[in-house]
């Protein structure tokens, strides 16, 4: 399927952050897609604006499942199916192999020298963690700026809730046009330090120098960017929040308003040049 309107990052680069009603309409589509993945036993693990394609009418399509993993129940079923298939074809067991392009980046849980959150090297925020086996949730994968703390630390107990953190980062970017933090090392990034220590008043004071936020949005972001995955908000709870239940445009209205913004941005750029 051809994504005629590019991806969400392209849109944000061109028009900047979106009003909360437009952001809400897009985010509803995003969580519908991610929730459908989770219901099928799939954790994406690399959710970011450039992986949300915009088809005709600005319908959101999730792409790039290269770092996706199966939840335990789905992984067990897939393994059983694969073993049955391998038995029919050959008596030789086929082991999953790591892509050569990812070998230097992947770090399995338990490897010596694995840094804690905040011990990454300078410039690492632009890097990607590779994967070895999509049926395991014990590998650090994805783009660091969107990575949940438990994934960054390489914890054994990871599940679908790592995607919720990434969604929180994405939502903040959709509304503001810039990320909630710039460095995955708390000691080097004031905003991330505030998030991880739940000093949200200080976080909002800093961010409101550059953008404005509704009280309803301020209520849900801490629940998405919750350090403890067991306390991170679920899809059901998220849908029931005041922000998610707020007013938003219809599909046609959304497409019209976004096209208007793109036209205005193009006109402004042409005039400036």
From TrEMBL:
GO terms for molecular function: ATP binding; protein serine/threonine kinase activity. Residues 109-125 have a biased composition (Acidic residues). PROSITE patterns: PROTEIN_KINASE_DOM, PROTEIN_KINASE_ST. Gene3D superfamilies: Transferase(Phosphotransferase) domain 1 (1.10.510.10). ATP binds at residues 1-3, 50-51, 64. There is a cross-link at residue 48 (Glycyl lysine isopeptide (Lys-Gly) (interchain with G-Cter in SUMO2)). Residues 1-244 form the Protein kinase domain. Pfam families: Pkinase (PF00069). InterPro entries: Aur-like, Kinase-like_dom_sf, Prot_kinase_dom, Ser/Thr_kinase_AS. Keywords: ATP-binding, Kinase, Nucleotide-binding, Serine/threonine-protein kinase, Transferase. The keyword Nucleotide-binding applies. The active site is at residue 46. Residues 85-136 are annotated as: Disordered. This is Protein kinase domain-containing protein. It comes from Lotharella oceanica.
